[in-house]
Amino acid sequence: MRPSTSSPIPLYLQIADVMRDRIARVVWRDGELIPTLEQLAAEFGVARVTARQAVQLLTKEGALTPMRGRGTFVSAPAASLKPVHVVTSLDALADTYRVTRADLLTIDENSRQPPIREGDGTLARAYTYMKRVHSTGSEPYCVIGLYLDEQIFARARARFRKETVIPILMEMKPRPMSRAHQTLTIGAADADTAHLLRVAVDSPVARVQRVFKDANGVVVYYADVIYRGDVVKLEMDMDV
Domain boundaries in the chain? Predict the structure, then answer.
């Protein structure tokens, strides 16, 4: 796959993402010799200096090790990511988020509204928008852009800024949501998402839209969640 010249992400970073993904998926194994700079430049359609920048970045990260006269070798085992099960209850979802780390990228109060569809519910007066990357250990597995009813956010501002949202909502009494719905679709990672999840551009991702409503049909929580395709696990019992 050739890097996109129209992307705001530099070419060498896009190439590094592809190479990093090959190591993670064990296309390139620990201790294996990778292609030469000339071969990489030809594969990705870039100058040799651009290929060298990508290799130098992964060398700095410890994923590659150059050996004089022998070439460059993979020096990092594939990342071990715990599968993320697609759950169908809020309790199970809360349990999943309690054991992950959430890094806040963006927070914006009172100036955005969730892109709800007809039938999703009615809008609250104001929302707080947050964008986060969730990780297990040091490995990111999903990016979440969520809208939370401002009145609910105000009840636990400090916690919502630092902790994952759903476990906090589940602890509130009474719970602010009475109905919940989620939709899963399959897509491809854009440049920004790929960079945050450390995967190659156009890698498969699972996108989940979650909508929580209160008893009056007001949307109190809306989230667009993008999971790495290599961590999502969907299991369903089937009638026989």
Answer: 11-74, 84-233
State the CATH architecture for 84-233: 3-Layer(aba) Sandwich (3.40)
C-beta of residue 206 within 8 angstroms of C-beta of residue 142: no
CATH architecture of the domain with range 11-74: Orthogonal Bundle (1.10)
Which class for 106: exposed (0-12), middle (13-18), buried (19 or more C-beta within 10 A)?
exposed
For the purposes of burial, counting CB atoms within 10 Å of the CB of 120, is it exposed (0-12), middle (13-18) or buried (19 or more)? Answer: middle
Name the DSSP letter for residue 156: G
Burial class (CB in 10 A: 0-12, 13-18, 19+), 221: buried
- Angle (deg, nearest 10), helices 37-44 and 11-24: 110
In angstroms, the CA 236 to CA 120 distance is 25
- Tens digit of pLDDT for each residue in 117-131? 888 999 999 999 999
Q: Give the largest Cα separation in the chain, rounded.
A: 70
- To the nearest 5 percent, what fractions of the chain are helix, strand and coil? 30, 30, 40
Mean pLDDT (whole number) for 34-45: 94
What 3-state DSSP class applies to 142? strand
Residues 85-101, mean pLDDT to the nearest whole number: 72
Instruction: Quote the CA–CA distance of 1 and 30 in Å, as a whole number.
Output: 22
Q: How many whole angstroms from its chain centre is CA 83?
A: 13
Contact partners, residue 50, CB within 8 Å, separation at least 6: 11, 12, 15, 41, 44
pTM for this one? 0.66
